Queue: 2 jobs
Job 1
Amino acid sequence: MRPVRQWLIGTLAAAGLAGGCAVVAGLDGDRTMESPGSGGAGTSTATQGGAGHAEGGGGQRDGGGAPDAGGCKLASFPAPPDVANAGGSVEVVAAIRALDVGDTGTTVGLDLDAKCTCEGDGPSCRHPDWMAEDACDGPEGRDARTTEVFRQLVLISGGSGGTDDFTSTAELGSWTMIVRVLGWNGLPDDDRVTVSVFPSSGLPKADKPPKWDGTDRWPVPNTAIAEGGAGVDQPRYVDLNAYVSGSVLVASLPESEMLIAGSSTYVPVHFIAGFLTGRLVDVGGKWGLREGVVAARWKLTDIFRSLSAVKVAGNRLCTGDPYYIGAKKILCELPDITGALASPTAECDAVSVGMLYDADPATIGDVTAPFEETSPCDPGKDPTNDTCP
């Protein structure tokens, strides 16, 4: 198995679709991200164009892609294809193998609020009174403030967490997120497919490391099954109206969940009003995803719940601890977006999410009880119950 670093760092170049609209960038660098089983076919060069900004997040696909009123191009996903009732029976099941959370300087995320804040536009929400100043967007209006969340996670945890660590642990089978596509016609354009996602806390110890050939059976928690559902055919996190445009999968997810594990950090993440994209590629006769993008919103209340799982020098963070005080001060300066569609006068209560991923063929395994860790903090010092400022 080649080194994880070689697997992670690659060229994920993006070229514009639909008349030069904004593009979704991939991982930086001049090396290739090879597909296992592909024989090292060379550089990935997806055309993840920007033909319809993610206005408001969570479902609007307006087919725009033009600069906003301030003249800034907005990074987005491809518009729906010009086909109707394509239909098909191809199923894709792929598991995340590499994850870039933007903490090392790569450009991640999509525009979520139809604004280029600090580039001619004002903010899309009112920053809380405790914040010193508004947060500026990334290039082309990209909303991805979680890059700073993960930078701070690496610092306070002594190196655990972040792109390198998350990719290494995924490679070894400690966690993943499954992307399942149903009803695809197998062609570059399909106007309607069903996309569901399932978090996984990793393979059983006896099955590690994964083979990454489609035979690995990843267990998924019952929290990813719809209420009253009998199994993975009744998923909780699903888009019944997803599509494929130019071989790029586009799905809207009102909510989704990831269970990201670092070498000594477990981060349960609950996203809302999000999008997932990825270029469908042949991987040894099965299907995988390349240049994948996760763009969403992470509410402050959910981030505090996640903090209860972070370790510092082997110990959990509890409110009042020196490390926690510093981390909270930084976190409370990060909200840049609302957790739902709202006017610019609504208070920013969430942090925008931007991630890149690659996923390889997989199999969905058993439905199990969710993985949970009980906080060792006293009830009054559990970050779950904390708020800003």
Note: Residues 284 and 346 are 49 Å apart (CA to CA).
Job 2
Amino acid sequence: MFRLKMAGLVKRFGSTEKLVVVAVLVWLGLLTLGSTLVALPFFDQAPTAGPNWSNTMYLHGLLIGMVGLLGLISMDVFQAGHRSPLMHNLVLWGTLGAALFSGVGGIFDHAVTDTVFLWMQIISFFFLDEILLTLSIALLLRAAETRRLAAWAASFGAIGGFLAAVMGHAAGWTLEFGDWPKIFVNGYAALAGESWQTLQTNLISGHAHLMVLSVIALVVASITAYFTGEGNGTRLMRFGLWWMAAGSLAVIVIYLVAGFSQVQPPVWFAHSGSGIPGDDLTSGLTLMLGAVLALIGLGLDRLPNATARWGAAILSVLTLITVPVVGYYIELNENLFNHGVPGASRSASDAIFSWFHQDFALFMIPGLLLLILVLQRFAAASTKRPHALRLLISGSVILFFGGMLYVFVFPQDFGAAFYVSLVGLATLLAGLVTAIWALVTTQENADTVTQVNPSPVHGKVKVS
């Protein structure tokens, strides 16, 4: 009976891959709604707030599934591992496992002592490991075969994600078991010239930064490859991909060294206790800037579906402004913005900015870029797709302005900036619901084409 029902669902959606994509996306949508209860800046980011285990693990439950879904879509876009059903199945079913275990575990994992749910999330981490490792190998092979710049850029993103996961495992071990066994943990820390607690801090920081940046590189490379197919794209797009790929390699080296040793990036433009860390300067001016240039170049290309292409470019610009541009300004003015020190005149604003910097620009926007790609790939024929795209893009812009208003103009709790941000969140929610509706009500059909792109991977016209 179960097999008959599964066969019926596969037939309804057009492919097993789309069924898994929609199921994971619906699950992630529900987790996203729940995240508003644990990660809204106006409620949980007081100036003295530190990392919260429960909130962190909940967001891990959401993000692990998102990265797994990105891996599955990237495999499809590049047809990486297309000669190996094993590689495809490892990523396909690994995505389902990662999303399920990470999400359920994240809901109930409130402390290190919640052993059952912590181990559910650990299992999801292992699923993500095999996804990223398989994806890295498949993309490298595909890049060597096609010699396409986008494939190389995507492979560097996948490799960076896998190495970030390894760093996360090392940090997680020390969070769970401390310095046991001492001969290894303390022994390595001593060789690195630091305490094991400092090693733990460096690993956590390197893991978080490298994973986010690698996801950005992977999703941007996948978007450009999807729309251009065999085409080379504009010169600006190609330069952006090259610059982003170079940045990916740079941040991999920086965060591996910083995570596993006492050597840390220097601080640039230091003055009065302020300055820009070298890793932030490098990632902002290389990988993130390259991503923006690549997507603007894609928007300038003479291709159909301008709303999706320019929407992706707009979202990347919001990230560039929020993370490097405003981030550099705040890092250079820590006497005013000093999260964790209530005596600083704008510490509350810095607390809000921390949320917009992380949850909005580095988590939400890559997720929205992935959603744009999913809509183009699996709901091309839907009349609801353009409406979903407009809602997602406009909601992001409104939320961005709400955040900037709060940080720089109206820092009062529940003031004008709060309500602007609330409108943005509501618009995003409407866009998410519309996107899922478009996916559920549109059967995948490779004969229904709104944009014809010769695909380097399918050997046929691509539905986009």
Note: The chain has a mean pLDDT of 87.
